[in-house]
Design brief:
- The protein is α+β, with helices and mostly antiparallel strands.
- The protein contains twelve helices and twelve strands.
- A hairpin with a 5-residue loop joins strand 1 and strand 2.
Length: about 375
């Protein structure tokens, strides 16, 4: 595969991952809005000029746009870019019947649920994808019991022993040995509290994890934590249908926990912002994962769906979480925030998102690494 075909493959893989996830995200907004009687003027997958589309009997224009890097639903009455609920002259000119079908005319808790539905749909879709994988392929599991300890490792230094049954790492509950890896990797060169059972007695052991720069088969590098223990050979377990929803929900819950942990580490400076990736990195990873086969592709889509839902829940103006924050405050104080406050908040949110997007894109292109080398 030459460079050009590799780039095109990554772009197509990226669209194959992002397109359906954006669709279900916006469909969540749309479905709950229709439930509350809000008319949708436009349902768009992508931005920019329309490639093709159609108008349904309810008056909604369904369209595919030429830039497939997102999407949106524009509801009737949603005429203020900040969705602040500010009555515009266009809105006031509507008839009472048409005005009742607008987004702005709905109660604050209706608007809250409409906005919340998008991120929750992404999280629900991730649960469905995990459930589908577990139903078809089963779950790899082994007891969370230490079968061997690497000499001079963090576990060896802390005094862990063969036969110890690990039950938790910090606030992460450990049911099986494969629950350990994602947790440990998140804390390079950090002290963690490991809860274990030894000879029938519960114990707490503090372990200072070692750090290592890991490079995968595609050349992607990251700094990960190392504990230095081995478990038993994983066994593929076929779960009863009644247990699959809980297992899938637990997998997504762990991923959300890791997202929150990762954001906290970046904010506190414990994790480098160099690990932030943007659309270019996601596109590159989409192509790489797709090469591995259908199952890794589905699991990658589930991870991106969780990420999309989580990011949109952050209380940043311009994201769904920013709208949710404003609607929650409106419910509490029983009136909307002033237009001036909302306008400046959304300007700040737009500046923050554009800055992070630019930073992540430069990081994806390797510009920041190059600058660091130049500056010494």
């Amino acid at each position: 595969m030459n460079a050009y075909s590799g780039i095109m493959f990554s772009i197509l893989s990226f669209i194959a991952v992002i397109g359906p996830l954006v669709f279900v995200h916006e469909l969540g907004h749309y479905a709950v809005a229709r439930f509350f009687g809000v008319k949708a003027d436009v349902f768009s997958i992508g931005f920019g000029p329309e490639i093709f589309g159609w108008t349904d009997r309810l008056g909604t224009r369904w369209r595919i746009a030429c830039l497939p890097f997102g999407g949106y639903v524009r509801f009737a009455g949603d005429m203020d870019p900040a969705s602040s609920g500010r009555p515009s002259s266009e809105w006031l000119a509507l008839s009472p019947e048409d005005r009742a079908k607008t987004f702005q005319a709905k109660k604050a808790w209706h608007r809250f649920l409409i906005v919340l539905a998008g991120p929750l749909t992404n999280i629900f879709v991730a649960i469905l994808l995990f459930a589908a994988v577990f139903s078809v392929h089963g779950v790899a599991r082994s007891p969370s019991v230490v079968s061997a300890i690497v000499p001079h490792s963090a576990a060896d230094t802390a005094g862990l022993k063969v036969g110890d049954k690990i039950t938790a790492v910090n606030s992460y509950k450990v049911n099986y040995f494969n629950d350990l890896q994602p947790v440990v990797q998140m804390h390079p060169d950090e002290e963690v509290l490991i809860k274990l059972v030894r000879d029938g007695r519960a114990m707490d052991v503090k372990v200072h994890l070692k750090a290592e720069h890991f490079q995968d088969r595609f050349g992607n590098s990251s700094r990960i934590g190392l504990l230095g223990i081995l478990g038993g050979t994983p066994v593929i377990v076929r779960l009863p249908l009644t247990e699959i929803p809980q297992a899938a929900t637990s997998a997504v819950g762990t991923m959300l926990h890791e997202q929150i942990d990762g954001i906290g580490q970046i904010i506190t400076g414990r994790r480098s912002m160099d690990e932030l990736g943007g659309p270019i990195r996601i596109a590159r990873m989409s192509g790489q994962i797709t090469e591995l086969g259908f199952l890794p592709f589905v699991l990658f889509m589930a991870a991106i769906s969780v990420n999309l839902g989580f990011i949109n829940l952050l209380p940043v103006p311009m994201l769904d979480g920013g709208h949710l924050l404003f609607y929650a405050m409106e419910i509490i104080i029983r009136r909307p925030l002033t237009p001036v406050i909302q306008t400046w908040a959304f300007r700040f949110g737009l500046f923050l998102l554009l800055s992070l997007t630019l930073f992540a894109t430069l990081n994806d292109l390797g510009v920041l690494v190059w600058l660091k080398q130049i500056l010494g």
